[in-house]
Amino acid sequence: MGQKSNMEYGEILAKMLQKETISEMDPEQDKTKFREFHVLLRELFPNVFKACEFEEFDGSILLRWPCEEGSDPIEAAKKNAPVLFMNHHDVVEASGNWKYPPFSGTIAEGKVWGRGAIDTKGGLFGMLQGAEELIMEGFKPRRDIYFQSACNEETTGLGSDSISKVLQERGIRFKFLLDEGGMILYDPIGGADGTFAMIGVGEKGCADLKFIAHSNGGHASTPDKDTPLVRLGKFMAECDNGKIFDAYVSDAVTEMFSRMAPTMNGITKALLGNAKNLRNTLKRILPNISPTANALVKTTIAFTMAQGSGGTNVIPEEAWVIGNMRYSHHQGREESINEIIEVAKKYDLEVEVLDPGFESELSDYNADEFKLLEEGVRENFDGVYTSPYIMTGASDARFFGRVCDKCYRFVPFVISEEQLEGIHGLNESVDLDTLGPAVDFYKYVMKNA
Prior knowledge:
Elements: H1 6-18, H2 32-44, H3 46-51, E1 53-57, E2 60-65, H4 73-79, E3 83-86, E4 107-108, E5 111-113, H5 121-136, E6 145-149, H6 158-170, E7 176-186, E8 195-203, E9 205-214, E10 218-219, H7 228-240, H8 251-260, H9 266-273, H10 279-289, H11 291-297, E11 300-307, E12 314-315, E13 318-327, H12 332-346, E14 350-355, H13 368-380, E15 384-391, E16 407-414, H14 417-422, E17 429-431, H15 435-448
Parallel strand pairs: 3-6, 3-7, 7-16, 8-15
Antiparallel strand pairs: 1-2, 2-6, 4-5, 5-17, 7-8, 9-13, 9-14, 10-12, 11-13
Helix pairs in contact: 5-15, 10-11, 13-15
């Protein structure tokens, strides 16, 4: 068990939440508040900062806990590949009417409340507190352990992008890494009568595309056919029917279904329990079940922004919409973008790739490193199953594919459906009684890595 009570752990996390660290899209954002947060981390985890080498990358940080004092990191990595633990310290804005002020770190109702409690100052607390306790216990790592935390994961991703490039240039490659991602949920896909630790083995790429329609404009009293907004509307309607991109049920998805099937009943249990042999059936069924199921097996695009003319009686000379595409591993970035461009051509639309996104590979759920995470769950959470899954959202782990083949995404918190909805929403909170097991999980993985 951890060295402190869950209430004491909650008080440490509360201090982290009380420091506002909202990141902005502007890469030139003043980093003062992030550096002040680093000072707070030094106060909360003094032994970590004594034992570790510290580097700052414009507000983002990298810590190295050497396996041998004074050892060269490159030589140490050649002898025994290091491991990396990640969680970012920036947060999204916290507008709206919160039950407790979003940067108060209020402890009430058995929870710690505040922006970042789960995403992901909570995870940052868990991994640093785990290391802090191991150092106090006299533990010496058998391989270098790195800790990384970015100040712009929620926005530009520049921190992790730059740090991963520097590590690549230094010749450092990791045995595995653990970043934010899945958590411990009851009935994560519907119909599964059990609690599952969902460990992300990969994430879909994310691209932003602008679709532009041109015309000669004119007065709204004499509209021509297929004006810019009409063409854009027809284009979006075709995309919305879901038939543009191919469905494919990957091994990671069939493994997830196979692991959850024993907790299900009826036809769902029979179908998902035999998922590996029923891929063709599932790829026809899943896109029609729910948006989540569809996203597991296909590239998706959501239209998020639009602009027409500046007047209610003016046909625009130019109108545009922006689509946020999440491309699947089986189609990838290039093929997915090319397919949507071909559809856009049918409606005489120009396509501008605003951000092509970053592709990352799937990691092996049969690897010893994944099994270590499973063991960590079993040791610290009673009655919890473990399953791989593919994240439809993005994490900073994607950048570290440059220096690691086994990138896993998981924060060991037991959370409710309501708490899941609080991520980037109102009333973000984490239960006090999940903090101790989370610290112990990180300790277990560090000790046995």
